[in-house]
Backbone:
């Protein structure tokens, strides 16, 4: 069984933060920006990032479940350690560039909120 080592700091730093993405996107509506005519809601951004981290963690754990479980280094402790690694890698990936899920969710929520406000005003 191949041993996998990952530097969490390297995974975390592999992308810009969502706030940096938002500043660069300007009015493009990226996560972290107010988007066209909207304000940046830090709680919404945090929730979107957390959801993306949970989603990535689920993918990582599902992929790891497909690996063979036999071998000299296979143990309950190893499973716990790799589970914690998956969790930290997912969190670091979501804080960096992520996979775009946080941005998609935030944009969808902002679009729906704008539509509700427009319908309520009209």
Residues:
């Amino acid at each position: 069984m191949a041993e996998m080592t990952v530097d969490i700091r390297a995974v975390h730093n592999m992308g810009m933060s969502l706030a940096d993405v938002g500043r660069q996107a300007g009015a493009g509506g990226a996560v972290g920006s107010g988007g066209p005519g909207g304000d940046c809601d830090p709680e919404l951004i945090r929730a979107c990032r957390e959801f993306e981290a949970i989603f990535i963690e689920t993918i990582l754990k599902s992929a790891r479940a497909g690996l063979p479980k036999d071998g000299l280094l296979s143990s309950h402790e190893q499973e716990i350690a790799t589970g914690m690694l998956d969790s930290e890698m997912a969190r670091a990936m979501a804080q960096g560039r992520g996979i775009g899920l946080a941005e998609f969710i935030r944009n969808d929520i902002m679009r729906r909120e704008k539509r509700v406000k427009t319908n309520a005003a009209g």
